[in-house]
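FAQ
Q: What does a multi-component entry look like?
A: The components come first, one per line:
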Amino acid sequence: MSAVKHDVFQAIADPTRREVLRLLANEELPISKISDHFPISRTAVAKHLHILSEAQLVTGKRVGREKIYTLHPEPLTEVQQWLSYYE
Amino acid sequence: MSAVKHDVFQAIADPTRREVLRLLANEELPISKISDHFPISRTAVAKHLHILSEAQLVTGKRVGREKIYTLHPEPLTEVQQWLSYYE
DNA sequence: TTGACATATAACCAAAAGGTGTTATATTAT
DNA sequence: ATAATATAACACCTTTTGGTTATATGTCAA
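Then the predicted structure of the entire assembly, as tokens:
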């Protein structure tokens, strides 16, 4: 799970990660709140968030003992541009 | 390679498969011609084509001893629609 | 009819993906 | 000070992915 290993196409390939992005579109959320929405462990959700942050789709800021994740949809334009070829 | 249909998001996650789609955007091609463009074996390319066809992004028609693949970009609209949420 | 060609199929492999549970560390509330 | 909370960091496991090679089958050309 290194710094530039995951690209945006890979990041959005997983349905759980797409749902995470949807959640964060509405509001910033800590890991615990995000993992409440999924039937998997908090550890697994944290890994998904790490992959999303490698793709620069989210950032996490420390607030007290929580880590609050924020959506950054900008990298999705790469997908958009790739798709535009087929319209 | 499961019998379960591959999702279009998963299909386009792989860079080789995205390149295959680009090639087929210009012209229909048999497997052998497609695999000329990649440093991997013909078998590997055939597997990628199988995944793309599970996602309904390509179809293959038998012509003599060749199998000619054709692009069908329609399923990409699912990605387009998913992306539109973030614009 | 024989040989070359195009693809299919099968067995196999290493690495990555997606998950688990446990333990450690930092922060907050009592 | 202690207990509870939130996350991080491991170690570990199973399945999937992306690739290989070898062999079989069907088609075309000489």
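Q: Is there any commentary attached?
A: Sometimes. For this entry: The longest helix of chain B spans residues 42-54.
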